[in-house]
Amino acid sequence: MAHQQHAQLVAARHDLGGAAEDEAPHTEAVGVAVGAGEGDGAPWGGTAGFIAPERIGGDLPASQASDVYSLGATLYQALTGEPPHKGPLGRVLLEDPAPARALNRSIPRNLETICHKAMARNPASRYASAGEFAEDLGRWLSDRPIVARPAGPVERSLRWLRRNRRVASVA
User: Fold this and answer.
1) Is the CB of residue 27 less than 8 Å from the CB of residue 33?
2) Which residue of 43, 148, 149, 169 is surrounded by the most CB atoms within 10 Å?
3) Residue 160: how many CA atoms within 13 Å on its side-chain side?
4) Which long-range contacts (CB under 8 A, 24 or more apart) does 5-12 make?
5) CB of 62 within 8 A of CB of 70?
6) Helix crossing, 2-15 with 64-80: angle to 10°?
7) Residues 6+ apart with CB under 8 A from 123
8) pLDDT tens, the chain, 171 aa long
9) Spatial distance between the Cα atoms of 114 and 149, rounded to a whole number of angstroms
10) Other Cβ atoms closer than 10 A to 30
11) Angle at 33 between CA 113 and CA 111, to 5 degrees
12) Does residue 46 sit in helix, strand or coil?
């Protein structure tokens, strides 16, 4: 999945120390790395509908948390065909995006949960890094329980049976 690979690339950039440098590119537009002052003309760089709420106004530097938000916003648009926020920039600060499944009922519930965790308005509620976001996408792709919404015992058993059909059919 392209979003998992993109999240892994952002995680690698952070691991190499790119996030510590003020002029390092950051992921704040749809699939585009931007530097300070780039993007749609905003002073903080990036595209308004995809920028983390804490970055609006340019007071805080880009961080792993803001990159995770932008990755989640990019995934949201890929899933729904709509940006997470339309209209005035204040919507990013005041409103959560519409539930992804409200715009596209075919989106699996766990994938929607992953997407919205990445776009949580509170940075502490997001994945701690792009790597963790990528890992949860990988768990979803492998039909394993996701971190964003831990599965109960029945769901874990059903997932195990789906992944291990041969073993389950012998038992």
Assistant:
1) yes
2) 148
3) 9
4) 5/134, 6/31, 6/71, 6/74, 7/68, 7/71, 7/130, 7/131, 7/133, 7/134, 7/137, 8/130, 8/131, 8/134, 9/130, 10/67, 10/71, 10/130, 11/129, 11/130, 11/131, 11/133, 11/134
5) no
6) 170
7) 52, 54, 63, 65, 66, 69
8) 565 665 666 555 555 454 443 434 454 444 444 444 444 445 545 677 788 888 887 777 788 999 999 999 999 999 999 999 887 776 777 788 999 999 999 999 999 999 999 999 899 999 999 999 999 999 999 988 899 987 678 877 877 788 787 766 666
9) 8
10) 15
11) 10
12) strand
Tell me which amino acid residue 163 is: R
Question: Hey, what are 127's tokens?
Answer: 């994945």
